[in-house]
Write a structure and sequence with these properties.
The structure is a single chain. With 376 residues, the protein is of the alpha/beta class. Helix content is 32%, strand content 19%. It is built from twelve helices and 19 strands. The strands form five sheets. Strands 11-10-9-12-13-15-14 form a seven-stranded mixed beta sheet, with helices on one face. β4, α4 and β5 form a beta-alpha-beta unit. α6 runs parallel beside α7 and α6 packs antiparallel against α11. The chain is elongated. The structure holds nicotinamide-adenine-dinucleotide.
Length: 376
C-alpha cells in the first residue's frame, strides 16, 4: 500500500500532513510512504528527516505520477481538482475538505476517489484522537493569547518592583470552546486576570477551572446539539452586545473565538463598543476568516483605530504554529488511518490494505465522496 503526501500549495499554509516521527510506525504496518520534496519545510521537517525514518522523497515535477500511484493521499488543505484527476479509482484522500471546496469535491467524485473531510469527524469520545478541528483550535487559542500579549503595551502579570507595582492585564475571552479555553489557559499562565463569556452555560465550569471568571448575563442559553452553540436572533445579539459592553470597555485585551457551525461568525464587538476602550487596548479576532466577531476586523491584518485600539484579524492561525499544529494534525490522520488500513502478517512480511467499513460511525460521517457519488 502506498501513501503519498504532496506539498501544500495554498499561500500561507505552513503545515504538513505527516511529520517524520510517525513514519516508522506506518512503515512497520506495511505502508510505503512517499513525500514531495520540501513538503515539511514550513514545519521544520526536512527531506532528510523523512528519509531517515524510511520515506521516499519525490520531486515536485513528479507530483501527478506520485498521486497517480497513491492508495492514500494525505494533505492539510483539500487537493486541487487537477490533483484528484491524477489519482486512481478507489484511492483515498484525508484532508480538511469544507463544503466550499466544491471544485475539489466534484473532482473527487469524477475520479472515483473516496475523499474524507476532517471537519466531519464526529465529536464522540472514540474519535477524540482523530479530531483535527480540536487540535488546530488548540493551536489557534494559544496563539491568540500570545498575540494579545505581544500587541499590548502592558505586562500581563502582576509585578512588584522597586519602581512600583504593575497591575495585571485584564483579558476578556468571548467564546469558551476549544480555542477560547486554550486562550484563557495561556493568558492565565502569563499572569493576566481573565474573564470569559459563552452562550453555552455548560462552559462556565471549564472557564472557572482555569482560574478565570465566567460572566453570567441575563440571557437565554443557546446550547445546541453536539455541544455546539445555536445562532442568536438579532434581538438577542443586540441585548448581548449591550450587556457585554461594560466588560469589553474595561478590558486591556479582548480575544474573540465565537463560532456557530455552518453559519457566519456572530458579531460580538461593534465599532461603538471598542470606541470606548482605552488607547493601547487590543482585540484579537480569531473568527476573522469566517465573517468576524469584531466589526471591521480584516483577516491577516492589524488595524489601528483613531482612538488607539489595535484589532488583529486571524488568518491561517494554526499555521502560525506550524511545528506543533502539524505534529498534532499528523497524529489525528494516523489515528483515522488506523480505522481505514488493515495490516496482515504473512511469511514474516507485513502487508497493508484499505478496508472501508461504512457501518463505522466515524467512516460513515466523514467520507464526503465514495464510489463516484457525493455522499455529504
Ligand atoms: P466552535 O468553534 O463552534 O465555537 C466556539 C465557541 O463559541 C463555542 O463555545 C460556542 O458556544 C461559542 N459561541 C457561539 N456563539 C457565541 C456568541 N454569540 N457569544 C459567545 N460565544 C459564542 O466550538 P468548539 O470550540 O469547536 O467546541 C464546541 C463544543 O464542542 C464545546 O462544548 C466543546 O467542549 C465540544 N467538543 C467536544 C469534543 C468531543 O467530545 N470529542 C471535542 C471538541 C469539542
Amino acid at each position: 500500500m502506498r501513501l503519498v503526501v504532496p506539498r501544500e500549495s495554498r499561500d500561507g499554509e505552513h503545515r504538513v500532513a505527516l511529520m517524520p516521527d510517525v513514519i516508522a510506525k506506518l512503515v512497520k504496518q506495511g505502508i510505503s510512504i512517499e513525500i514531495e520534496s520540501g513538503a515539511g519545510t514550513g514545519a521544520n521537517a526536512s527531506d532528510d528527516a523523512y528519509k531517515s525514518q524510511g520515506a521516499l522523497i519525490f520531486a515536485s515535477s513528479e507530483r501527478s505520477s506520485a498521486l497517480g500511484r497513491a492508495d492514500v493521499a494525505l494533505s492539510v488543505q483539500p487537493l486541487s481538482p487537477s490533483d484528484f484527476a491524477s489519482m486512481k479509482k478507489g484511492a483515498i484522500t484525508l484532508s480538511f475538505l469544507p463544503g466550499s471546496a466544491s471544485d475539489s469535491i466534484e473532482a473527487a467524485v469524477k475520479a472515483n476517489v473516496t475523499a474524507f473531510s476532517m471537519e466531519l469527524i464526529p465529536r464522540i469520545s472514540r474519535a477524540q484522537s482523530m479530531d483535527a478541528l480540536t487540535s488546530q483550535a488548540l493551536c489557534a487559542g494559544y496563539r491568540a493569547a500570545l498575540i494579545g500579549a505581544e500587541l499590548s503595551p502592558r505586562f500581563f502579570p502582576l509585578l512588584m518592583t522597586a519602581a512600583g507595582t504593575v497591575t495585571p492585564a485584564q483579558v476578556l475571552v468571548l467564546g469558551a470552546g476549544v480555542a477560547g479555553l486554550q486562550a484563557i489557559a495561556t493568558a492565565r499562565r502569563l499572569g493576566a486576570v481573565v474573564s470569559a463569556y459563552d452562550v453555552r452555560p455548560s462552559s462556565a465550569d471549564e472557564v472557572k477551572s482555569m482560574g478565570a471568571t465566567f460572566i453570567e448575563l441575563e440571557l437565554e442559553s443557546l446550547e445546541g446539539s453536539g455541544g455546539y452553540a445555536r445562532e442568536m436572533s438579532d434581538e438577542r445579539a443586540a441585548k448581548q452586545r449591550e450587556l457585554l459592553k461594560p466588560f469589553i470597555t474595561k478590558s486591556n485585551v479582548v480575544i474573540t473565538t465565537a463560532a456557530v457551525p455552518n453559519r457566519k461568525a456572530p458579531l460580538l464587538v461593534t465599532k461603538e463598543m471598542y470606541g470606548d476602550m482605552a488607547p493601547g487596548s487590543v482585540i484579537v479576532d480569531l473568527a476573522s476568516e469566517s465573517g468576524g466577531n469584531v466589526e471591521g476586523s480584516v483577516a491577516g491584518e492589524t488595524i489601528a483605530t483613531a482612538s488607539g485600539v489595535r484589532i488583529w484579524g486571524g488568518k491561517d492561525v494554526p499555521s502560525q504554529l506550524p511545528f506543533h499544529a502539524s505534529s498534532l494534525y499528523s497524529k489525528n490522520l494516523v489515528n483515522l488511518l488506523g480505522l481505514i488500513v488493515k495490516s496482515e502478517e504473512q511469511d514474516g512480511k507485513t502487508t497493508a490494505a484499505i478496508h472501508l467499513d461504512f457501518d463505522d460511525e466515524i467512516i460513515e460521517a466523514s467520507a464526503v465522496t465514495h464510489d463516484g457519488v457525493k455522499r455529504k
